[in-house]
Request: fold
Amino acid sequence: MARIIGGLGSPHAPSIGTATDKDQEQSPEWKPLFDGYAPIRQWLDVQKPDLILMIYNDHANTFFFDKYPTFAISVAAEHEIADEGWGKRPLEPIPGNPQIAWQLAHSLVDQEFDMAVCQEMPLDHGCLTPMSCFFPPAKRWDVPLIPICVNVLQPPIPTAMRCFKLGQAIRKAVEAMPQDLRIVIAGTGGLTHQLGGERYGHTNTEWDQKILDLMETDPLALANMTHQELMERGGAEGVEIIMWLVMRGALSPKVDCIHRNYYLPMVTGFAQVIYEEPDNRRRNSGDAA
Amino acid sequence: MSKEHPWEDGGEILAIQSRQIDYTKPLPGTYLTTGIRAQRGYRLGKFCMTLMAPDNRELFKADAEKYMRDFGLTDYEKELVRSKNWNRMLRYGVNTFMILKLSNAMGVSQNHTGAGMRNQSYEDFMATRNSKGAQ
Reply:
């Protein structure tokens, strides 16, 4: 059967993608962030997943407010690079997996998560930044991607608990698939930041660290919070951690946090994590078949 | 603040009941794109979206007034664009990520919009940051 072998957490700020494209990953300002991707790249190299499920939000590039889905899944065979208003990033289109994506869409709707199903989903920084950080140039694009979009732009946005439950439904859907697939799920965005209004630049390192503690050990405490509470602490865009909760919901109650990094250079608390599934960990170390 | 545009003072209370967000007590300095606000800002947001096309960006940069007229912005909306006052656009109902397409086409970086929204000079804003190079 298919299974989820682990979860990744990553920021998705466009400036990170620009740093990659300008070969600034090792500059003094960016090194503390990209050092946090080294263990993720290494882990992906070893694990060789068959598929990435990327939980992200579009930033008014694939979707406009004429129609704005709460949850959307791409069944596209290939994903174009979006021009967000300042030119496309120099990246090749990223392959999808229509067969698995359609199966996933069916399973999720069967479980009463009514996804908008998209045959075209040009990708913006919400998805491209983590992808280009997970996979350096030589590895692009060895692993196909199924992007799953969450509305965090135009309230009403889904509750934190709903997002956690979506993750649980994704896990059920994956485990019902007969194919022998090793799947990684990634939650993106955050952590604390605000990009509009007089409160622009609001960050909260103490809360960022608490988010990372709770995400690992007590995600329901986060899932039970309201958007108001998340925004008060973490800024309006700090609510993006609900996408990490989708990832966390797809994992076992107890995970092995084998990597955690934090860096706050400018206006966003950037965090990366690797949560490995305990049974995958045992397989790695040869303790179990 | 004008009576004609009562949202301009930033104190607008959206008539929405939600378990998730208390719209009677808006977060200071925060303008969520929803409800009547999102409705009001829809056309200007749509205008910003046109700037995703490189040809349109060129047309806008070459003659912003003509571009705004051809799109059919109202006089108030044109004035908002000219003002480069991003908070006014947020209060009107344009989403942050749409505004960034406009500000970029007007040659203003994200952190310059941020400094402006905080009513600070760019230098004063940058002095509050940990690492100026990572942007």
Q: What stands out?
A: Strands of chain A lie at 3-10, 51-56, 71-74, 78-79, 94-95, 116-118, 145-150, 182-188, 256-263, 270-276.
